[in-house]
Design brief:
Two copies of one chain form a homodimer.
Chain A lengths: L1 H16 L2 E8 H4 L8 E4 L11 H13 L6 H9 L4 E4 L5 E2 L11 E7 L5 E5 L15 H25 L2 E2 L1 H7 L11 H18 L3 H12 L6 H12 L11 E7 L2 E6 L7 E4 L4 E4 L12 E2 L3 H4 L11 H6 L8 H9 L2 E10 L5 E7 L1 H7 L4 E7 L7 E8 L2 H14 L4
Parallel strand pairs in A: 2-3, 4-6
Antiparallel strand pairs in A: 1-5, 1-7, 5-6, 8-9, 8-12, 9-10, 11-16, 13-14, 15-16
Helix pairs in contact in A: 3-4, 3-5, 5-7, 6-7, 7-8, 13-14
């Protein structure tokens, strides 16, 4: 028990001592050279093959294959996918994360967050905005045109600005966002604005034309979720150094591919513990119901893994309403519950509205199983069919089975079972 | 009584139906032609002459006289002021407001907020940033150089961007800010970011050089109080149409010149009811104490007059700490108290953290005197000597004497006394 306590304490120290800095935007094929070796698609969640992928993920795969020039159209892409011509792997296996379907392929620009205290790098694509977008399974011409603009204009512009800036430290932005109603999963409006404030002077210096700069500023400034992907890369940058600590029962990743939910635990290395993914309970956009909904999906649960999202609900009373979690005054209850399954509060990420309680940090699989409290996740909801997009937002619980299985493996490894 | 009730209801209707839009930045001498008629200085608060002005206001007067080229240096300016060579008048008499010392003179650029539902215009200077600045009595070369840059570069750039944009509606920005920890007096970080998001694409289109645009974006983006002056012009634009409603007991302005606090009441027209201004209770920056503090000052109390600032404390738990008002969880108490002295909640400006309670709107002088609850004001604190600047922030109560005197005059006018 003392070895576990020491190991978990070490894990929390690494999390709290992390120093994630948004440093650059890099073409995925340069960031992850493996992507150049074939028709390779990284996706959200634990490993999955084409046949078992949900509708929106299949839709995104078809779209990204056309985007990469591997397929002439969506039908061709689906045929190639069915014939096994594409190789699939989780983002998490390549220092990356992606929201919802989480498509990462060679030509896309990826934001680079470097954890300067440990030197590791983490990547996430640039957020595409709201509405019909690839992360929710959108794949029509408008979706691909936006991705092309991000690749050809916005990405290089952001890269130039970030290099000139020397990097934008992210921890303090998140700390400020927690005092401004963000929980960094379903609400990122404050951090998106704070990031724009930091980035825009450098964007202006990069020297692009007034029109293209204006378009970039308008794109970033009208997307309340722009920061989400930065927060996700930050989460990955913080958690990767926590992997592989002997005796450590802290969760290092939670992720979903739309079919299965998977977790990784520090002492158990890179093994995924999976269970069928659950259906979010939430609110639907006009015209949609839960009959349209795809089960939970995406690598974005990395933000809950570092104490944000559903764990920081008390910071975001407006989210409680948006995801159908009850009155604003009840938002703090979610955060207090998550303290039951985590190692400690994060003193650097305090919630002013909760008298500066720190966000619950370091999910301990032992406590999850003991208390029966599964991690609370704030999530977007995709339509279950390919090509439609987002239909709502809600709350979902991580399936307990993952934690039970992981705890059994952990107990065996520790020689308890 | 029914006539008063009807009149007050009309006043609230006008407040709620207002449509303040930030439309342009205009040279003060063009906005207010009177300013071109001599060495005329508009100041914060009710009328005051040089001899009775507090230290920081005298310091600001000396500085602005040098800035306008009326004096060769600060000593010369003080001598001219003492000799009666400058004409002083309140901003409030010319559709304007100014924070703290509130200097408004012919060559300064003023932001124009038009109330599109009633057509009236209101003006406020551009916020200078934090530290040693003229509104807190700063007057050295660095202060004047910054004002010159605002006049020569930032003002024209903002004017071009705002004209191109067609105007930025302000009510919705404030509504969003209330869900992001702003109360729009001592905390404007969210609204400053939201405004920058709206404005920056237009700034980029105006076509200034990369360097000058970058400087403007960095200036706006690093000033958490940038929105304060927009909120103030908004308050003036909302309240001016509420003036001169027969039988109406609603406060149309609260303001302080550093020596006296003054209020105006709708049915009592443009008469000021004044009392000696109070000393804020608050927290001081390192190295300063209340011995250094000047009493309360500025037109910024116009934001409390429209239900923000101290009235919206429940939206801004971080401010409660900053101004020394106790624990974050107690912030809502201030807002609930102000409901006792106001006509109703504002349904458009709701506080998510208080389960969407609307901000207390329409200060009724009868209720202030009946309850003995003076309006709560969140304020910055200036050093009492000229030239120093801000030394802290705190809470101050409007002096009850203003409200008692106004109520007596109101009762006489209504034939009750």
């Amino acid at each position: 028990m003392q070895a576990i306590e020491q190991a978990n304490s070490e894990a929390i120290d690494r999390m709290l001592q992390s120093d994630p800095v948004l440093e650059d935007v890099i073409t995925a094929g340069d960031a992850i050279p493996y992507l150049r070796e074939g028709k390779i698609i990284l996706h959200a969640g634990p490993p999955i093959d084409w046949q078992r992928m949900c509708g929106p993920m299949q839709g995104a795969v078809a779209g990204i294959a056309v985007f990469e020039g591997w397929a002439s159209d969506l039908d061709d892409a689906v045929e190639q996918a069915s014939s096994g011509l594409f190789t699939f792997a989780p983002n998490h296996h390549y220092s990356a994360v992606g929201p919802m379907t989480g498509m990462t392929t060679a030509s896309q620009p990826l934001m680079l967050v470097v954890n300067r205290s440990s030197g590791n790098r983490a990547y996430c694509a640039i957020n595409e905005g709201l509405g019909k977008v690839m992360r929710f399974g959108g794949n029509d011409a408008s979706v691909l045109a936006r991705l092309a603009w991000i690749r050809d204009e916005l990405g290089p512009m952001m890269s130039g600005a970030l290099r000139l800036s020397g990097g934008i430290p992210i921890k303090n932005l998140i700390a400020r966002g927690l005092g401004m109603g963000d929980e960094m999963h379903q609400r990122n409006v404050a951090c998106s604005g704070l990031l724009l404030r930091e980035l825009s002077p450098w964007l202006a210096k990069v020297g692009s034309s007034g029109e293209s700069l204006s378009k970039a500023l308008a794109f970033m400034g009208s997307n309340d979720q722009f920061f989400l992907n930065v927060g996700m890369a930050t989460g990955k940058a913080i958690m990767d150094p926590v992997r592989d600590i002997e005796h450590c029962s802290i969760v290092t990743a939670m992720s979903r591919n739309g079919t299965e939910f998977g977790i990784r635990v520090s002492a158990l290395g890179d093994r995924w513990f999976t269970a069928p993914v659950e259906m979010p309970e939430g609110l639907y956009f006009p015209g949609y119901t839960e009959d349209d909904a795809n089960p939970d999906m995406g690598d974005s649960t990395i933000v809950e893994t570092i104490g944000l999202g559903g764990f920081a609900m008390g910071a975001a009373p407006a989210v409680a309403g948006f995801v159908g979690a009850g009155a604003a005054s009840e938002a703090g209850t979610y955060t207090r519950n998550m303290l039951e399954i985590t190692y400690q509060e994060n003193p650097e990420w305090a919630i002013p509205a909760m008298d500066y309680q720190g966000v619950p940090t370091g999910i301990d699989i032992r406590r999850v199983v003991e208390t029966g409290l599964a991690p609370t996740i704030n999530t977007g909801i995709a339509h279950k069919k390919p090509g439609v997009g987002q239909v709502g937002a809600g709350i979902v619980r991580a399936p307990m089975q993952c934690f039970r299985d992981a705890l059994r493996a952990f107990a065996q490894q520790e020689g308890v079972l």
